[in-house]
Design a protein that fits this description.
This protein has a domain of 134 residues: Hypothetical protein af1432. Helix content is 63%, strand content 0%. By secondary structure, the protein is mainly α. The longest helix is centred in the first third of the chain and has 21 residues. The chain starts with 7 loop residues before the first helix and ends in a 7-residue tail after the last helix. It binds fe (iii) ion (2 copies).
Amino acid sequence: MNEPTYTDLDRERLMQKVQMHMSEKRFKHVLGVEEVAVALAEKYGASPVKASIAALCHDYAKERPDDEFELVIRRDGFDLALLNWNNAIWHGLVGANFVARELEIEDEEILQAIRLHTTGAAQMSLLDKIIYVADYIEPGRDFPGVVEAREIAMVDLDEAVRYETKHTLAHLIENENAVYPKTLETYNHWVAKKKRS
Ligand code: FE
Ligand code: FE
């Protein structure tokens, strides 16, 4: 595994840069995600270093104004249909580009885990799953079902992806929120019963 060099000082510096871009509350969330992501990486055999970096950076762009995202969507050649969405979708998918440029993170596995952390995807790497699940179950989260989600994550990571995806979609529908097509793809792959012939 191409483990990047990552000293305590590297981590401290990264934490400081991330902290400058968000509220105290969100930073606390980020540290919670990191704690869980590193634990899941150790449990399931992913790189704890990559888990730490991806977790620390996953919400880096969450508090950027919409016009900055719109600029990057046009500048970096994203599908312009993305302009019809909002921060909830942009901060991961487009936010990874802020992370790459401003924090000089080049590792494609880390950037992809950041891109997919909100919507998931049909195909997810181990690191993608870890960040997706850690974001959902970090110690600061409090919603009906979070205890069950945490228990599942300690036993079966794929089952945790399934649980989270099912409940996230149900929640979106319950609130009559738009569902980003990628979220539906995630649902169809991980949750929907497969037709058998
Ligand atoms: Fe997020
Ligand atoms: Fe988050």
